[in-house]
Design a protein that fits this description.
Layout: H1 8-15, H2 21-36, H3 42-66, H4 68-73, H5 86-105, H6 109-128, H7 135-155, H8 160-181, H9 185-191, H10 196-200, H11 202-226, H12 231-251, H13 256-283
Helix pairs in contact: 2-3, 2-7, 2-13, 3-5, 3-6, 5-6, 6-7, 7-8, 8-11, 11-12, 12-13
Length: 284
């Protein structure tokens, strides 16, 4: 990984994988549109986007700091510590955490009260690989907070629909993270890192990922019923199913470049189709 010609902002975005914010944001915005039964206010929309960006930035910085020495020993992540100094990452972690809490406080009292809980949950994921093989599900839980939080931001309460959607997000993230983790199988086994891929082996892990994505599809259909969405939404879910099928077909080849391409393209596509389907249903 060459750093020649890269500015500090570009290096920072690479460190926190800023482009991957696209995975969870559409589910939060979709939940927001459904909760508002149309367009939310611009203020609420912007505050939720701020919350999402600040929370994910804080989570990624915490993860990088916790795994700082571990990442240096992993060939896939060995250059991460060159992107930014450790002290700068610590300062930015504090600032992004404060930004998240401040944005949540500006929405309503409940989001403010729950903000520290949400931060604790997303930080906790980074520690789970040290004591459980179910770390992929904790990552899913960390991202599943987004649609529930967006719903609370709009309505001030929790309903069945965002809970069903959150369950789908947990299965979706755990499934694609299992696929992604196959890249680190040898390193994780050598370092004694707890991972379902190490525990189950690659073939069984890929089969589990398939089951999880079937559950994701079921949960997205369930969300449609709970939110009383129309036919367009359900037709769009067939496109989601096709994207997930493509991801798993690519994963079975165990091709590193193919896995990375399918990981980003398929999952970004899934979340984008979901958001588009919800918007067409609620805004047309």
């Amino acid at each position: 990984m060459s750093l020649v010609g890269e500015g500090p902002v570009s290096r920072f975005f690479r460190l926190i994988r800023f482009s991957h914010t696209i995975f969870a944001l559409p589910f939060a915005l979709g939940a927001l549109v459904v909760a508002a039964n149309g367009l939310p206010s611009l203020r609420t929309f912007l505050l939720i986007v701020f919350c999402m960006v600040f929370a994910r930035t804080a989570a990624m910085l915490f993860n990088r700091l916790v795994d700082w020495s571990l990442d240096q020993r992993n060939p896939r992540t060995a250059s991460r510590h060159l992107l930014i100094s450790k002290s700068a990452a610590q300062v930015l972690l504090v600032l992004s955490s404060a930004g998240f809490v401040g944005s949540a406080a500006a929405i309503n009292q409940l989001t403010f009260l729950l903000a520290p809980v949400a931060l604790a949950m997303i930080f906790f994921y980074s520690l789970t690989k040290r004591f459980t093989s179910a770390t992929h599900f904790f990552l899913g839980l960390a991202l599943a907070i987004a649609p529930v939080g967006a719903w609370i931001a709009q309505t001030g309460r929790v309903d069945l629909a965002p809970i069903v959607l959150a369950a789908g997000v947990i299965c979706w993230v755990a499934g694609f993270d299992l696929i992604y983790a196959t890249q680190d199988y040898d390193f994780d086994r050598r370092e004694g890192i707890r991972s379902l891929v190490v525990k189950l082996g690659i073939p069984r892990s890929l089969r589990l990922a398939q089951v999880l994505h079937l559950l994701t599809f079921a949960a997205l259909i369930g969300f449609g019923f709970a939110a009383k969405l129309g036919a367009v939404y359900y037709y769009a879910m067939l496109i989601v199913a096709a994207a997930l099928f493509y991801e798993h077909k690519t994963a079975t080849k165990l091709d590193l470049i193919g896995i990375n391409r399918a990981f980003f393209q398929s999952n970004a596509f899934v979340s984008a189709v979901f958001l588009l389907a919800v918007c067409v249903d609620r805004l047309s």
